[in-house]
Amino acid sequence: MSNLSRDELIYMSKIAEQTERFEDMLDYMKRVAQSGQELSIEERNLLSVAYKNTVGSRRTAWRALSSIQQKEEQKGGQHKSLLTDYQARIEKELSQYCNDILDLLDKTLVPIATASESKVFYLKMKGDYWRYIAEYAQGDLLKRATEGAADAYQAASDIANKELKTTHPIRLGLALNYSVFYYEVLNEPTKACNLAKQAFDDAIADIESLDEDQYKDSTTIMQLIRDNLTLWTSEIEGEGEEGDDQ
Q1: Which of 80, 153, 171, 233 could connect to 127 by a Cys-Cys bridge, CB 3.0–4.6 Å?
Q2: Considering the entire predicted model, what is its pTM?
Q3: Residues 134-167: b if buried by 16+ CB within 10 A, e if exposed
Q4: Contact between 64 and 72 (Cβ < 8 Å)
Q5: Cα gap 104→100, rounded to integer Å
């Protein structure tokens, strides 16, 4: 299927999504993105779904394996080396896909984006995938991933705060994930709460101006922000827990 047209690639990406063949979906949408033509909202969302699911299954596997490793060590660590090797394999796959989308964002998607909404979407995406690397990275890679995520989230926030409505789902999704980054990666719960609360309060103040076609997406993200705020506020004095992201 190397000579598919743009429309055929998009059609096949939808088929791959329906059959939950997300690596195939990723391949189709990557080829669309590499064409150098700016993506439509639908195409942008298909690309995001492809990478999110491909990486998401591996993030879930890595977390589950980390939990298994802790239990194994408590039992004496007989299979520790096997688990360490398997974890390294999962991390290699995570790095492959995260670096893949980061390269696509840096070389193609961010440079050709014209609308503010698109720029924020892609910069948020860049922050997200650096954050995913920071979840498992150590040493210099952890430092680079943390800085990469922070820079991308801040750049996205600078544009979003000037150009997008407080109730826009992309602006709210950015605030949600940026606050999760502060809480989970930077270990700064107060800043995480302040950022999340500011975004939630600003959106509530402008709720009457919420566009009807964005109502469901925006209110869903607002609920996630509020859930995280409730969790984090109650946990600040004790052990922290992971918050939801988008």
Answers
A1: 153
A2: 0.91
A3: bbbbeeeeeeebbebbbebbebbbebbeeebbbb
A4: no
A5: 6
Give the closest residue to 51 by CA, choosing from 87, 83, 26: 26
- Return the structure tokens found at 42: 């639908």
Residues 6+ away with beta carbon under 8 Å from 132? 55, 59, 94, 98
User: What pLDDT sits at residue 3?
Assistant: 87
Residue 213 and residue 172: Cα distance in Å, rounded?
A: 15
Q: Which residue stretches of the chain are H helix?
A: 6-18, 22-33, 41-74, 80-104, 110-112, 116-136, 139-163, 169-180, 189-205, 215-235
At 108 the three-state DSSP class reads helix
Coil, strand, or helix at residue 237?
coil
Weakest-pLDDT range from 62-66, 75-79, 133-137: 75-79
Q: Are 164 and 117 in contact (CB under 8 A)?
A: yes
For 84, phi then psi, to 5°, come to -65, -40
C-alpha span between 239 and 230 (Å, rounded): 14
Positive or negative torsion for Cα 200, 202, 204, 207: negative
Largest CA distance in the chain: 60
CB 32 within 8 A of CB 47: yes
Structure tokens at 169: 């789902």
